[in-house]
Specification:
Helices cover 45% and strands 19% of the residues. With 337 residues, the protein is an alpha/beta fold. It has a 5-stranded mixed β-sheet with strand order 3-2-1-4-5, sandwiched between helices. Strand 2 and strand 3 form a beta hairpin. It starts with a strand and ends in a 19-residue tail after the last helix. Bound molecules: 5'-O-[(R)-(carboxyoxy)(hydroxy)phosphoryl]adenosine (KG4) and zinc ion. The site of zinc ion has 6 residues, from helix 4. Zinc ion binds next to helix 4.
């Protein structure tokens, strides 16, 4: 098969990203412009500001990604232009998707609309070439917490999901409550390094039941404990909270792996950058005799290389997307069954 190079664009939330990926695995460039500073003052992503910031920086980010890949920015040798079309913030999605469609028309190459969640699932495949299926993937991001059995690229079975808050959302809410700033995940992880994970006894919801998860009770328990004991050190609260989240995430992944007789474990999404979660999943894999595929930290949080990788697979196996593919803020992952 001839080589196909894809320009991927990601603007679903608060990172403006572009990447050039050849044949789904060869990352020739990956540029990410984070809007963290812009939203930090507000303690969370402000959708209006995010959309406007994407508009401002997308053109230079694209030029940078093409230049770093050694491509002519006026007429790059590409096989397709791809963008995330959902889920995410409507105004933000529209910026990337419209740009990708316009470029695909201008350059006469196919457009591929990518599901952001599928992008996260492909992040691990980018860096781990020889995987056995099924792989149980725990996808933990700011908006989603999903446990899937991946039977191969494009073949996903739902095992479980959060019944309320996403894991990343819980990190962000607890961090905001503790005054640790935004984004909450890295802030909690940093504070937890100096804390005692056993300082607070916190609930592990649904630990021994099924494959669904729940984090809203844990979040409330943290708020109650801190209000009742204001002398508690933030470091201890952060460490205890993080331990509770990691315990549940790893227990569910293990149970999921047992249920489908998995051949490996895998993490994806922004929360997958969390050091203690990575270490705990690695230990679980060792105990179960299963390989653990961890994307590098940069590949866990939002980026466009994962969009380029997912788009390549989609283009080869399902074909291009119609140019009237709309942006869908609540797009779901295509599941088997
Ligand atoms: O995948 P992502 O970059 O964006 C979404 O698609 O949502 O995930 C962002 C989420 C945020 O909730 C952030 O707090 C969390 O990932 N996160 C972390 C860490 N780094 C990012 N959570 C825990 N530990 C981290 N090191
Ligand atoms: Zn994401």
């Amino acid at each position: 098969m001839t080589s196909v190079t894809v320009l991927g664009i990601e603007t679903s939330c608060d990172e403006t990203a572009a990447a050039v990926v050849s044949d789904g695995t060869d990352i020739r460039s990956s540029v990410v412009a984070s809007q963290v500073d812009l939203h930090a003052t507000y303690g969370g992503v402000v959708p209006e500001l995010a959309g406007r910031a994407h508009l401002e920086v997308l053109t230079p980010v694209l030029a940078d990604a093409l230049a770093k890949a050694g491509l002519d920015r006026r007429r790059p040798a590409l096989g397709a232009v791809a963008a995330t079309v959902g889920p995410g913030l409507m105004g933000s999605l529209l910026v990337g998707a419209s740009e990708a469609k316009a470029l695909s028309m201008a350059w006469g190459v196919p457009f591929v609309g990518v599901n952001h969640l599928e992008g996260h699932l492909f992040a691990a495949l980018l860096e781990h070439r020889s995987l056995d299926w099924p792989l149980v993937v725990l996808l933990v991001s700011g908006g989603h917490t999903l446990l899937v059995a991946m039977e191969g690229p494009g073949r996903y079975r739902r095992l479980g999901a959060t019944l309320d808050d996403a894991a990343g959302e819980a990190f962000d809410k607890v961090a905001r409550f503790l005054g640790l700033g935004y984004p909450g995940g890295p802030a909690i992880e940093r504070a937890a390094e100096r804390g005692d994970p056993e300082a607070l006894s916190l609930p592990r919801a649904l630990l021994d039941q099924g494959l669904d998860l729940s984090f809203s009770g844990l979040k409330t328990a943290v708020l109650r404990a801190v209000r009742a004991r204001p002398e508690l050190a933030n470091e201890d609260v952060a460490a205890s909270f993080q331990r509770a989240v990691v315990d549940v995430l790893v227990a569910k992944t293990r149970r999921g792996a047992e249920a489908v007789d998995a051949r490996g474990l895998c993490l994806a999404g922004g929360v997958a950058a969390n050091g203690p979660l990575r270490a705990a999943l690695r230990a679980a894999g060792e105990e179960m005799g299963l390989p653990v595929a961890l994307p590098s930290r940069a590949m866990c949080t939002d980026n466009a290389a994962m969009v380029g990788a997912a788009a390549w697979w989609q283009l080869v196996h399902l074909g291009p997307s119609p140019l009237d593919t709309g942006a869908d803020p609540s797009l779901r992952l295509r599941l088997l069954d």
